[in-house]
Amino acid sequence: MTTTMGSDEQPQSYFPRWKFKASGVIMPEERLSWGQTVVSGLQHCVAMSGSTIIAPLLMGFDPNVAVLFSGIGTLIFFVIVAGRVPSYLGSSFAFIAVVIAATGYAGQGPNPNLSVALGGIVGAGVLYGVIALIVMWSGVGWVERLMPPAVTGAVVAAIGLNLAPVAVKAVSVNAFDTWIGLATVLIIGVVAVAAPGLWRRLPIILGAIGGYLLYLLFANGLGFGKPIDFAQLAAAPWLGMPSFTTPTFHADAIFLIAPVAVILVAENLGHIKAVGAMTGRSLDGYLGRALFADSLATIVAACGGGTGVTTYAENIGVMAATKVYSTLLFAFAATVSILLGFSPKFGALILSIPGPVIGGLSIVLFGLIAAMAGRIWVENKVDFANPANLITVAVALTAGAGDLTFKFGAFTIGGIGTATFGAIILYQILTSPLARRAG
After folding, report:
1. What is the average pLDDT value for the chain, to the nearest integer?
2. Rounded CA gap, 26 and 184, in Å?
3. By its UniProt entry, which PROSITE patterns does this protein fall under (predicted)?
4. pLDDT (average), residues 8-21
5. 214 by DSSP, 3-state: which?
6. For the residues 298-317, what does the mean pLDDT come to?
7. Share of the chain above pLDDT 90, in %
């Protein structure tokens, strides 16, 4: 099978041959020395680890299983895009609000209704796959018309605002928990602003480590809070099978969670275009494949107990900083993640993270999701003097933040679904020819 990279290149084999290059900008079909490939691949593991680990904790998923399927999903992506689009697939935060709503998760420990959430995530993956196949057949123009930046930004902001009460509740159990949560937030901020070099790109994981150590000092050492129990960590073996969970399918959960596919399409579209801009070549020809790969990876993950996955901006940031775009790095990073998934010791360490530390991380991460909307609007020069944009955003934000819920018989649509579908439908109505004639 052959494929082409552009009009000025000759047909190539399905996978690149990864020509060695020692320095300068390393393109997707090039590679560093094998030693540098290992080190750079590990760097991508670190970059994805904060969000990929924290997201399952916030939903009550097993982090070992989530990390394992992030690696499997990345390899699926690697194969389907023919090793020509550099990207890592990690846990998607877009699922958090709808999973919590669908399962009634209390915020601590394993999610007792995990299988119900998995069924909904499979539904989202199937819808995502249908959209991907349509894009492969007809192009991406209709997606951009259906979800212009004003709508996409509104939905992203609604997700972050809908999650805000979860984060606040996690740090509000008592005064000690509140101070630990706020200290974690401060550590993340200081790292993001003042840390040297690539450390600045790892604020979430460094914030988690800093918050953990603070909690350990004041709780285990000085007795201000409930001590961390290391019994499970000590008892966990270094190697072992992950705890897989199979999905169960409930119509209301599927109806609530499936619309997240719309967010994943917009997210993946933005990431592919960002990588294309950084490498100086259009990757639009691989967009349909990338969407389909992400959808398949999400379905596979949910069938075994993993979170839905998406392409990761964290790893795109590492590529922007290093100018190394070799896709081999992601194949190596994925392999490392799969190996970590088979270490119960690693999973027990993650599960020992105290609640207020997770709460502090959540305050930042959920806030960043909401703030990302501002970036979308600014970069795309969204005109808020246009009433169609302004009203669409205003309604979506209120519906998401207030968790506006609609019930249709046995079906329930929570704030995220209401904001998503509401923004899409309202924008199309307000920009329709009929509305323009009326104006």
Report:
1. 86
2. 36
3. XANTH_URACIL_PERMASE (PS01116)
4. 74
5. helix
6. 89
7. 38
Q: What is the dihedral of CA 382, 386, 388, 393, to 10 degrees?
A: 50
* Cα 284 from Cα 144, distance rounded (Å): 13
Q: 411, 252 in Cβ contact below 8 A?
A: yes
410 band by pLDDT with thresholds 50, 70 and 90: low
In angstroms, the CA 268 to CA 291 distance is 7
Q: DSSP string spanning 28-66? A: TTEE--HHHHHHHHHHHHHHHHHHHHHHHHHHT--HHHH
Q: Which one has a higher pLDDT value, 352 or 271? A: 352
Identify the residue whose tokens are 């995530």.
Answer: 121
Amino acid in position 283 = L
Beta bridge partners of 19: 30
Phi, psi values for residue 404, rounded to 5°: -60, 120
Concatenated DSSP letters of 113-164: THHHHHHHHHHHHHHHHHHHHHHHHH-SHHHHHHS-HHHHHHHHHHHHHHHH
Distance between CA atoms of residues 86 and 81, nearest Å: 9
Residues contacting 70, CB < 8 A, separation 6+: 48, 52, 88, 89, 90, 91, 301, 306, 309, 334, 337
The answer, yes or no, to whether residue 9 has pLDDT greater than 70, is no
Buried b / exposed e along 290-322 (16+ C-beta atoms within 10 A): bbbbbbbbbbbbbbbbbbbbbbbbbbbbbbeeb
How far apart, in whole angstroms, are the C-alpha atoms of residue 2 and residue 16?
A: 10
Residue closest to 30 by CA, chosen among 325, 394, 412, 239: 325
126 falls in which pLDDT band (50, 70, 90)?
A: very high
Residues facing residue 90 across a β-bridge: 310
Tokens describing residue 43: 């760097």
CB of 122 closer than 8 Å to CB of 249:
yes
Q: Look at residue 280 in the predicted model and tell me its pLDDT.
A: 81
Residue 203 gets the label, from left (phi > 0), alpha (psi -120 to 50) or beta, of alpha
pLDDT of residue 11: 47
Distance (Å) of CA 59 to CA 56, 342, 382, 386: 5, 21, 33, 38
Whose tokens are 């003097």? That residue is 385
> Is residue 365 pLDDT above 80, yes or no?
no
